[in-house]
Amino acid sequence: MVLAFYGQQISQEQLARLLQVSKKYGTARKQLVRIAKKLGFRVIAQHRGTVQDLLRHIRAGCPVIVNYLEPSDNEGHYAVVVGFRNGSIILNDPWNGRGFKIPLREFLKRWRGTTPAGAPYSRWWMTMQCN
């Protein structure tokens, strides 16, 4: 979704290979960062993010990738924050579709997870811009 936003056309299969997606563990955050840099993007990625971090980048026109617990199955999941409206965060989400709204309070509860090794993390986000 974010690659297409920046005009990069890459198939889902090719991206999965580049990211070394695992059926057991999914996609590692460090792989997202590594591949984005390899594709020529400047990357900012942080833990312990705030809503203000997300707002700052959205207002600057940069979509923000977040890792959160998806509402229907409580599994770790990536989505793209594209806006805020009426107390909700708006996501373009591979599972829930474009324009998926989730109340901000609910999102904040879900913006956490564990690494494949079982270590907890919270409020991870990433944005990328062309160099």
From TrEMBL:
Q: Which Pfam families match?
A: Peptidase_C39
- List GO molecular-function terms, semicolon-separated: ATP binding; peptidase activity
The region annotated as signal peptide is none
An example GO biological process term is: proteolysis
Q: Where is the Peptidase C39 domain?
A: 1-118
Query: Under the cellular component aspect of Gene Ontology, which terms does the record hold?
Result: membrane
Q: What is this protein called?
A: Peptidase C39 domain-containing protein
